[in-house]
Structure formats: structure tokens, C-alpha cells
Specification:
This protein has about 110 residues and is mainly alpha-helical. It folds into 2 domains: about 40 residues, no CATH class; about 55 residues. About 65% of the residues lie in helices and about 0% in strands. It has 6 helices and no strands. It is flat, with a radius of gyration of 21 Å. It starts with 5 loop residues before the first helix and ends in a 7-residue tail after the last helix.
Length: about 110
């Protein structure tokens, strides 16, 4: 059983977790580097750019799009079923995003 966490690195790790071993395959290190570079570094740079361009309130709304992207990727890549509840939830999210980002009504 592969394990990647503090139990393997602790002084009693090898004795307490005899089946715990760390795999040093090149693909593992490539995936870790890719995640660290793209998933963290570039994502934070883009997020701070959005905060600067849109403002903090509107930039946080971007996080509400993630479940929709995950839903569409699940349907397209993993061939998960698209149910009425998922479509209704997506419509609720899109409606909330549209409501939160619309321009305020002009005061007369």
C-alpha cells in the first residue's frame, strides 16, 4: 500500500507502517512538479490578477464555477450520467453568479 504522508517520514514509520513505502517514479515527480507549478503558482497569479482587475468581491465568484467545470468534465470524460438534479443545480449556480455580478441599478 503506497503511502505519502507524515507516518512514513516519522521515526517509527517503518516499524508502525511496514507496508508504507514511497514511490520515486519519474512520473510521480513530474506530476508533483506539474501540480505545484500549474495548480498552485499559475493559479494564484491568475487569481491575484482577477482581484486587481475585477475587485475582490467579483473575483471570489470564480470559485463557484469549479463545480460546473467538474460536472461537465465528469460527463464528457468519465461518461457520468447527467441527471435533472445536476442540471437544476447548475442553473442555480449560474443564476447566482449572474445575480452577483450584474451591475447595480442606477439611482435616480
Amino acid at each position: 500500500m503506497p503511502c505519502s504522508g507524515s507516518p512514513c517520514r516519522s521515526p517509527s514509520g517503518p516499524r508502525a507502517f511496514p507496508t508504507c513505502r514511497s514511490h520515486g517514479l519519474p512520473g510521480t515527480w513530474l506530476a508533483l512538479g506539474w501540480l505545484g507549478l500549474l495548480g498552485s503558482c499559475v493559479a494564484y497569479l491568475l487569481y491575484y490578477y482577477l482581484i486587481n482587475a475585477w475587485g475582490a468581491t467579483r473575483a471570489t465568484i470564480v470559485t463557484y464555477v469549479f463545480p460546473i467545470i467538474g460536472l461537465f468534465l465528469g460527463v464528457a470524460v468519465l461518461r457520468e450520467p447527467l441527471t435533472a438534479q445536476l442540471v437544476a443545480g447548475t442553473l442555480l449556480i449560474v443564476t447566482g453568479i449572474a445575480t452577483a455580478t450584474r451591475a447595480p441599478a442606477a439611482r435616480t
